[in-house]
Amino acid sequence: MSSLQVLAGFHAVVARLRHAPASIKEIYVEASRRDKRMQTFIQQAQAANVKVLPVAAERLDGLSKGTRHQGVVALAEEHQLAVDIDELLDDLEAAGKVPFFWCLTASQTRTIWGRACARRMRPGCMLLLHPKTVQWG
Predict the structure, then answer these.
(1) 8 Å CB contact between 64 and 88
(2) What's the whole-number mean pLDDT along residues 17-31?
């Protein structure tokens, strides 16, 4: 059995729920949180057939080892991501998807980067490429 990885916080756990829900073994949520965001998250996890366990905040603090968890911690198997562009293209071809990449030039990076990240990139975009040597300042 592979070692388990600790995912802390809504964004980390939701991203794994979207991309590899079968890799998540258990999700621990803060029992005292009953807000709308938590309820929506719990429904999403249950829809993916992942076990959700309400626990005390102290238990979450121990599991996350000091990382901010926002009331959500998951134990998941390691998930290998594509390591290079060729592997990514092969995976997309095997899944029958057409790749859509968004490439920025150095002059576009300054003005577009913040807006792109704020809008979570363009709809359907799988990869955002930007110059490595951009001067921010």
Answers:
(1) no
(2) 91
